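Inputs:
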Amino acid sequence: MQTKPLTEQEVQQIRAETKGTVEKIHFNNAGASFPPDIVVETIINYLTEEAMYGGYETEFKYNSAIENVYASIAKLINANIDEVAIVENASTGWGLAFNGITFKKGDVIITTEMEYSTNLLSFINAKRNDGAEFIIIPNDEQGNFQLAALEAAITPQTKLIAITHIPSAAGGMLPIIEIGKIANKHNILYLLDACQTVGHAPIDVKEIGCDMLSVTGRKYMRAPRGTGFLFVKRSLLDKLTISFMDGHTVEWMTCNDYKLRDGARRFELYEKNRALILGLGKAVDYALHIGMDRIWQRIQYLANIMRQQLKSIDGTAVHDTGDQQCGIVTFSVNGMEATTVKNKLAEKNINVSVSMPRTTLIYMNKNHLDSIIRASVHYYNTEEEIKIFYDAIKSIQ
Ligand SMILES: *Cc1c(COP(=O)(O)O)cnc(C)c1O
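Outputs:
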């Protein structure tokens, strides 16, 4: 099916609905992207109503709107509504899933060199506390994931395949559908960190065949900070243990017993910021309205222009490797600290970020990258902004 590109007029309309684009050229979308105005208005209105009419009373009024957020998320990733839990950030979602798995001595976790460093901490803990092992499958020289090496590493001890789809500090992507086929063929749990993916590229949990998937709101999803969600496949729910509980987690309890509620919402606690959840829902609806295929197409188009332009500048190195690249562009300017470049760009109203090994440790250490500049484009960015960025890099060199 042919994807219809975003028209110039649509991009202008989207920018008119995004306050942030007026003042800044924002290439820190992998950090936190600009929310659409409607997201901010929704949150402010809800908080105002809470202050005027009461928190519980306002929740009651917005009950069905809050329910609809789960439906929107389910639609976005092709899940069932009862497979979605809304949490505060991706780390919480990922941690609830990972810590729900019972590891025993000798169990093996397989991961990649692109894995998010926070996840690595949990692998280390599973090793220290439970005697589990973890194996890292390196990328090949071209920066592509080696599916054959993954399959060769699988043994009867393999308990989990944990993959970060889009790494925090590199522009390459992992072949999650092909990895899913291998995981399913060998009947191994498959946990996907899709923190940088949702809102960026289409995600279909059924097509991927993942068991668990974690997402944050503030990055490509354009939702407020302090939001995220977790997907857990229905058939897996009863096999995961729950770390935190309250009266909302269970359906009934006696002094001696309880029964967990149905669905992934057993991973949630009662108290949460309902204004932000509604904001998250608006951001998801906004993306659905444009269409994830079209968003993804435009992001690749813009990132490709940015990479080509950076590569044409002498003394600038683009680090992204691999056949399939995304909206995250990482580079260095010869003889200049990444932070200096970032600050000089900030003086020109251009936002980028600096990536340090603490986000993508194995990959950055392997490639001797101690700090790199990350310019991450979103669909609301424009060719003109990229040209201004290109001129700015040339002038500060
Ligand atoms: C940012 C990021 C996370 C953590 O997300 P939080 O919402 O900050 O917890 C996890 N994985 C990847 C790949 C990330 O880029």
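Remarks. The first strand starts at residue 25 and ends at 26. Residues 8-35+291-396 form a domain with the Aspartate Aminotransferase, domain 1 fold (CATH 3.90.1150.10).
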